Every structure is written in structure tokens, then in C-alpha cells.
Amino acid sequence: MRELSLNILDIAENSITAGATIIDISLTLKGNMLEISIKDNGCGMSEEFLAKVTDPFTTSRTTRKVGVGIPFFKMAAEMTGGSFDIQSKKGEGTKTTAVFDITGVDFVPMGDIGETMGALIMHAPLVSFFLKVDIRGEIYEFDTMEIKDVLGDDVPIDSIEVISFIKNTIKENFDKVNGGRII
User: Fold this and answer.
1) In this predicted model, what pLDDT tens digit does every residue of 26-65 receive, in sequence order?
2) d(CA 53, CA 60)
3) Enclosing domain of residue 31
4) Residue 94: inside a domain, yes or no?
5) Quick check: helix, strand or coil at residue 145?
6) What DSSP string runs through 17-41?
7) Residue ranges of the chain with pLDDT lower than 70?
8) pLDDT at 178
9) Residue 18 lies in a domain
């Protein structure tokens, strides 16, 4: 994938498909190492499936015989000299962590995390999404539960106006903690 935000979208979509009601996404930059973590409370994976999940010919989909999201995310991290880890327990959820060296020649751009979060919320408005961005100690946090509390029952979180506000707010705050640079 050409942008890390698309990898995040893909992994979070897997979480939604797995029945997650809470998805926690964190981006942490320390020095030159960017850690992206997506954690959910979905159905989790068996040990047997987890052992094969980074193989592109392993998928839980019935519509096709390949699944490239997780293998591409792993490859993108490892090509920069980083690492990849996925942990899952049946009935408890999954945590996917990729670490990237942002100075590596193969580091792909972050992309638009606001657009990614907007797409996820529109797709699954009942899921609680939490985003934490920590760029060398500058922190921004976003929580859909807080937005839903402010909106009350009168305005749905997936309305066009709210999604537009969310995307812009995340982009502005991401740029702010990132010093105006996109990782």
C-alpha cells in the first residue's frame, strides 16, 4: 500500500469484521522509530490461524483465496529495518504492531489519518474508536465516545457534517503534534 494510513484502514476493517466493539489505534514516534499499533476486542484468532496469518495465501475471506493486508503491513515495516508483531487470543481480540524506521529509504508516507478515521467511523458508527498520536512526547488523543457524548442522541456520529468535522479536527491536531510535518 502506498500510505500507512491505508494499512491502518485495512487492519481496522479486519477488526470490524471480527466483531470488535472497541478499536484502539496508536501512533508513537520516538527518535526515528514509528510504532503503529491497532488493538481490538474482536473474536481473535486461533493459534493455528495466527501462525499463518502473515502468509498472503491465508485469509478468512470466502470471496477470494488471498489476503494481502497483513503481509503488506509486515513487509512495509521490515523493509525500513523495523519489525512486525501480531498477537491474538480466541475470544479476546487481536493486537497488531508494526515498527518503522522513518529514515529508511523504503519508508512510505503516513497518508491522511483523518480521512482514514472518518472512513472507519462512517463504516462502523457503533464501534468505539480511540486514536492516540504521540510524536516525540507531543500527544493528541481522539475518542469517538467523547464525540458521541457531546452529540447526544440527536445527531448521529456518521452524519456528513460530523464526519467532516472529525476528519478536519484529526488532521489539524495531527499536523500540530507533528510540527506541521507529515511523518
Assistant:
1) 999 999 999 999 999 999 988 887 787 776 555 554 454 4
2) 9
3) 4-177
4) yes
5) helix
6) HTT-SEEEEEEEEETTEEEEEEEE-
7) 1, 55-68, 180-183
8) 84
9) yes
Looking at residue 65, its pLDDT comes to 42
Nine cell digits for residue 99: 515498527
| Residue-by-residue DSSP string for 42-59 | S----HHHHHHTTSTT--
CATH number at residue 116: 3.30.565.10
The number of distinct structural domains making up the chain is 1
User: Residue 1 carries which side chain, given as an amino acid letter?
Assistant: M
pLDDT at 139: 95
Distance, CA of 176 to CA of 162 (rounded, Å): 21
d(CA 23, CA 16): 8
Instruction: Indicate the SS3 state at residue 87.
Output: strand
Identify any residues that bridge with 171 across adjacent strands, giving them in sequence order.
none
Residue 31 lies in a domain: yes
DSSP-derived 3-state class of residue 167: helix
Residue 182 included in any domain: no
The whole-angstrom separation of Cα 130 and Cα 128 is 7
At 49 the pLDDT is 79
